[in-house]
Amino acid sequence: MSEIAFLGLGRMGFAMAERLVRAGHRVRVWNRSKDKASALLAAGAVWAESPAVAATGATAAFGMLADDIASNEVWLGPAGALAALPRGAFAIECSTLSAAHVAALAGQARARGLRYVDCPVTGFPSHVVEGKLTLLVGAEKADLEALRPIFADIAGTVRHFGAVGAGTAYKLMVNLMGAVQIAALAEGLALGRRLGLEDAAVADALATGAAASPQVVQNISRMLSGDWDRNPVFTAALRLKDAAYGVALGEGAGAAIPLGKAATKWFEAAKALAPDADQSIVLKAVTSAS
Ligand code: NAP
Fold first, then answer.
1. Which of 133, 238, 241 should be mutated for ligand 1, with most atoms under 8 A from CB?
2. CA-closest candidate to residue 93, choices 5, 2, 1
């Protein structure tokens, strides 16, 4: 059993923190909107009035937050967690963040004698609940080994990509590929409709054809049904954020990423329609443009 701080109880963070509580850890939680913590508090988590209060005395603090702005506020803000963690404790960022932010935050953590672990994830909230989340880790090997028992309580698979920053590098690369695939699906479905093809026939053929990546299969029916507002799994705003961070990383590395940039434009249009809708609203963005 460990003393854990969990910061950020959105769709993913809530599910991850819940697993830690149910595994028997002592978990102090903080979220910008306190109401999202209610069910966790009933399950045994303890509310902390700030990230700093949550981190005080913790052996490990997890962050699961929207973006760089949120991560900056929660770790480094006036009541931030980093300054409150005891020396030697782990600062584990599971949010999908820009590579530049991760490098800066890791540097600040190291300067305070903390062990920073770069730990973005892949999987939906339902995967967390089922114990099928995958952690994409960038960390010192010894730090990862020390964390394996806690990680086993959150995730089904742990992939180690190398030193701090390597988990984020992979995550941004693969999510940019995801953005391309989902945007390409939206373009294909919009074109099919324009050509008079039946949605049902297209959906069935696509889902079992050579272009059926898991991303494509996961998004076809939601895109075609137009069911964007109910229980979004991954929002248009988050998809755009990930794609933009991926483009920045690619450009910084001197990589040719015209497809990634084009997909990012579609998600800019999708976010402009409804930032909190499911990312499948990109079909509406594509359809509106033609
Ligand atoms: P979400 O439900 O929108 O939750 C976002 C969290 O960030 C909430 O706790 C929110 O607090 C907090 N937040 C936002 N702005 C803040 C600020 N300025 N200061 C403090 N807290 C702030 O998002 P999610 O789906 O859980 O995703 C969380 C992270 O996981 C993101 O980086 C996302 O890219 C990544 N991810 C998500 C999925 C997925 O399937 N959903 C999969 C893999 C990775 P409030 O509750 O107060 O709004």
1. 238
2. 5
Copy the structure tokens of residue 179: 């953005």
| 187 CA to centre of ligand 1 in angstroms | 27
DSSP of 43-100: HT-EE-SSHHHHHTT-SEEEE--SSHHHHHHHHHSTT-SGGGSPTT-EEEE-S---HH
Mean pLDDT of the chain: 97
At the topology level, CATH places domain 170-289 in N-(1-d-carboxylethyl)-l-norvaline Dehydrogenase; domain 2 (1.10.1040)
Burial of 171 (0-12, 13-18, 19+ CB in 10 A): buried
pLDDT beneath 70, residues of the chain: 1
| 98 C-beta closer than 6 A to ligand 1 | no
Q: What CATH architecture applies to the domain 3-164? A: 3-Layer(aba) Sandwich (3.40)
Q: What is the pLDDT of residue 1?
A: 61
Residue-level pLDDT at 2: 82
- Residue intervals in the chain for CATH 3.40.50.720: 3-164
User: Atom 16 of ligand 1 has which residue's CA nearest to it?
Assistant: 70
Continuous segment of H or E residues that includes residue 4: strand 3-7
251: amino acid identity, one letter: E
Residues of the chain with CATH 1.10.1040.10: 170-289
Which of 31, 36, 65, when mutated, tests ligand 1's pocket best, judged by the most ligand atoms within 8 Å of its CB? Answer: 65
Check: CB of residue 17 under 8 Å from CB of residue 44: no
Q: Ligand 1 pocket, 242 CB below 6 A? A: yes
Residues 135, 227, 182: CA angle, nearest 5 degrees: 50
